[in-house]
Amino acid sequence: MYFDGAMNKSRAGIGVVLEALNGEQLLMLKRLCFLATNNVAEYEACICGLDVLIAIRAKKVEVFNDSMPVVSHVKGVWELKEEKLRPYLEYANKLLFSFEEVTVKHVPITQNQMADSLTTLASLWEKGDQKLTQPVILMRSRIPCYEGLIIAHLDLEDEMKWYEDIRRYLEVREYPQSTNSRDKATIRRLATQFTLAAE
Q1: pLDDT at 48 over 80
Q2: Which candidate, 39, 99, 101, places its Cα nearest to that of 67?
């Protein structure tokens, strides 16, 4: 996993490149729609990538980034002095325990160019921009990633749970039969704040 994040002209964006052993890549970018510093954006990128690796059940991962402070904090080599970054570091460390083996390495920016380019693109991306297509996954985030909610270990036979409409939308992109356009918009909006996780 290669990741990068940056603030650019009052806009923050992140880029993540996941590369499989066979060389196939998944490229992701996200525009951060809240006030963020460069270091906050770096952590957002790191956590975004780790979340996806957990979702696809990766067991052994290598993580690369060109930000010495973030890499050193995650590895426990440097002491964290910015208190506003503490929730990010704690959440990232929690995610790292999900893997059997993790290596975190600092690399020069020349080895992190794809993630860096995605970061720039994310910070420039505006709503309605139709030029961006697959395999880039476009996402927006209105809250810091560590504040997100996870729906996990659901009883799939229980159709009456409060989150059932959201779960169904996340899983198969379907709405309840009697849903009007306003309700559909609400379900879509709520679904952006959840992740469907399964064992």
Answers
A1: yes
A2: 39
